[in-house]
Amino acid sequence: MNRSFHREFSSPRRLRRSGFRPSVFSLFSLLLAVAFLFAGMGCATAPYTTVPARYPGPRRGVARIPFSRSQIRTKLMKQYQTWKGTGYRLGGMSRRGVDCSGFVHVTFRDQLKLKLPRSTRDLAQTGIPIRKKDLAPGDLVLFKTGWGARHVGIYVGRSRFIHASKSKGVTLSSLRDTYWSRRFWMARRVAVPARGG
User: Which residue from 148, 150, 151 is spatially nearest to 36, judged by alpha carbons?
Assistant: First the structure.
């Protein structure tokens, strides 16, 4: 590149002399464009993998799985104990870092042998909606955490859920906490036990 050309057009001092001033409107437009880019993504932006699903998924219904409710809860808590404290990483799906929908995806795959969508947006359309008072271990709990931002966790009983938090990583939280109770959006059932209990 011609050095004089580079100096002419890259020097902040020369830009100021030429009268270049970013307007408030142009800065606002830039921020708005960035916000729209991230709106609706939830806490995960990792694309779907091209690897075939290992297990069937309940895209528009509820899958029957060969575990009782108590077994589902035990398996979920086992996953939590293994992953507890794992740091948050956008798009992550491993112990080196995981985001909220990644943790849901991995937990259902490894513990309940069920393939769920990878993104929070798609999880919000999976299974069937249920009332908060009807929550049972294995149900999904979803939250609106900001403008266009969504968060998802897995209910484990006694008003508690496991999830990958941006501030704490994989953790156990209560739906009764002020923060989560105010941001609760919906609950969805993606699986039912093939046996009772």
Answer: 148
User: What token pair was written down for 4?
Assistant: 């004089």
Strand locations in the chain (E): 63-65, 93-94, 97-98, 128-130, 140-146, 149-157, 160-165, 169-174, 184-189, 191-193
Q: Which residues have C-beta within 8 Å of that of residue 103, sequence separation ≥ 6? A: 83, 162, 163, 164, 170
Do 57 and 118 contact (CB within 8 A), yes or no? no
Read off the pLDDT of residues 170-179 as tens digits, 9 standing for 90 and up: 999 999 999 9
Token pair 């704490």: residue: 168
Domains for the chain: give ranges and CATH numbers: 3-38 (no CATH), 63-193 (3.90.1720.10)
Would residue 113 be called left, alpha or beta, if left means φ above 0 and alpha means ψ between -120 and 50 degrees?
left
Q: Which helix (H) or strand (E) holds 178?
A: helix 178-183
How far is residue 47's CA from residue 118's CA, in Å, rounded to a whole number? Answer: 8
Q: What is the pTM of this model?
A: 0.73
Residues with active-site annotation: 100, 151, 163
The closest of 126, 151, 141 to 40, measured between CA atoms, is 151
Strand pairing partners for 149?
146
